[in-house]
């Protein structure tokens, strides 16, 4: 049997000696590549991939993912991304495994920005970007991808970002596994407190208590923040007795509650309509400290209004102002509305003045609330003055502002002035809507301007609007009592 001569070939040149033999499939090569890669013989895998190409064997997504991983293991991120580019050029779609490999490789390198020019952030930022890239490419990240990124973020001390991803996983229906939680657990009180807080806010109080148990087992003392998080969790679940037990235990262990602790407890009691217990805590902090803040007062005043304790709310409100505390704009609007609806116009005006002087940056809402309150309290001149101040304060009345003012003028027996205001709405680029038409028509009817009401009704219908139930009822009453149709 004659010997086959060994021809000398240049590096990278295709070996045609095997052309007459059937080529092994990529599946067979993958069966070899995978265990070799797991044994960390990355250089051998790279060499084998080169031989595969010389034999004319086409890569698939699995073999290219293995190759990317090996380049990353060898510290050659640039080669890894070259393979990714090759995948895209060949039309091979990256899989979740591919992206997970890329994420893991990026997170294991300390100088990503130097290796890959497209990344100008630190490794963990790149990892999160790849998660977003996976989503944008119709490849939903799986538990492996999320765990890889969460682990990276935790190792770099970015716990809040890791917790955000944990929440994202749950929203998408991906259940965290033991590895996910192992990544999150670090033996320090700040980390545990953050975990307790995150789980309590999601209603997972029992899981939060498990973390507290783990803290105790590790000999980590619960700080104020941890207690506050657990108390808040119980309050959110309307478990006020459990919240009180944690509160009392906190004091017993020598951890002094801060204003956040008290505000959380007070808010919980108010939401549970247990105002007396809320006030007990308020008197406690008033005597012992810490000093009640805006949140403390606002929470109690809102609860008092909701429970119909108007005089008590006004008294506490005055105490709040006397202490130099000013509520935020949302709370102010709530209080202003409560005062107006209960007829406490003087207190409402006082609050409004405080709001203007405090530099809160008032929008149209408090003006509407107060104008409406003044109109209902038959103080139409003050309401008109406030309405005209809008432009002086850089505000434009909206449709609802006009409706409130027109309604107030009509109820005061001033339909002509109301109609002039109705006609001037366009001057402020504010065209009448169905509500405005109905309010104006009802104003005409109540002041016996039947002809004008009928004309305006025709105009309203022509603009595509229709009479509401209140306007239609007034017309029906008029027809019944006059024994004839006013629409004929």
Q: Could you provide a short overview of the structure?
A:
The chain has 488 residues and is mainly alpha-helical. Among the domains are: 186-257, no CATH class; 269-325, no CATH class; 327-395; 409-488.
Descriptive account of the structure:
- Keywords: Repeat.
- PPR repeats lie at residues 60-94, 95-129, 142-176, 188-222, 223-257, 258-292, 293-327, 328-362, 363-397, 398-432, 433-467.
- InterPro entries: PPR_rpt, TPR-like_helical_dom_sf.
- Belongs to the PPR family. P subfamily.
- With 488 residues, the protein is an all-alpha fold.
- Among the domains are: 186-257, no CATH class; 269-325, no CATH class; 327-395; 409-488.
- 69% of the residues lie in helices and 0% in strands.
- The termini are far apart.
Structural class computed from helices and strand pairing = mainly alpha
Could you give the order of the helices and strands?
A: HHHHHHHHHHHHHHHHHHHHHHHHHHH
Helix count from the secondary structure assignment = 27
Largest beta-sheet details: none
Low-pLDDT stretches: 1-14, 111-125
**Total number of beta strands:** 0
| Gyration radius from CA atoms, angstroms | 36 Å
Shape estimate: flat
- Please report which band the strand proportion falls in: under 5%, 5-15%, 15-25%, 25-35%, 35-45% or over 45%: under 5%
Q: Give the averaged pLDDT, no decimals.
A: 80
The amount of helix comes to: 55-70%
Q: Could you give the distance between the termini?
A: 120 Å
